[in-house]
Amino acid sequence: MRLFVKLIFTYAIIGVSLNAEASCDFQIAVGDNLQFSQDKLVASKACGTVTIRLKHEGKLSKNMMGHNWVLTRSKDVSAVATDGMSAGLNNQYVKVGDSRVIAFSKMIGGGEETSVSFDIGSLSTSEEYIFFCSFPGHFYAMRGIFEVV
Ligand code: ZN
User: Fold this and answer.
1) Which structural domains are found in the chain, ordered by start?
2) In the β-sheet with 25-30, what is the strand arrangement from edge to edge?
3) Which of 6, 15, 68, 125 has the most crowded CB, counting CB atoms within 10 A?
4) C-alpha 107 to ligand 1 mean position (Å)
5) What DSSP state is assigned to residue 123?
6) pTM, full prediction
7) Residue 121 C-alpha to ligand 1 middle, in angstroms?
């Protein structure tokens, strides 16, 4: 009986430390270079809705060094980014009505902030998701892993 209690206790501690990594609300900074402040986000399926807050701490305008946050499945990144280039800045460099896009924020320039909230209920814990910036040419470098746990 004592062993059983100890096992449960140990399991509870491991569970808590794993969950501590996951979040429902993420703050990401960008600047006048091709880099997100985080290269991996872990969201808990229990969140339901996840919010991404993007802040551009640089000085360059959005038509020169614009950044946004776009989420797709890993295999869709290149095609979505390529199609987005011709969509233009007014469409946040995301093809209008692109069903491969799970969520995206508007494009921002230096000193601006934006956020996007979306439901992750339909996302899978076994699928690989990537977030990236769809400003032309940025997705090669500006990307990270979005993991659902
Ligand atoms: Zn960018």
Assistant:
1) 20-148 (2.60.40.420)
2) 25-30, 49-56, 113-119
3) 68
4) 8
5) -
6) 0.86
7) 27
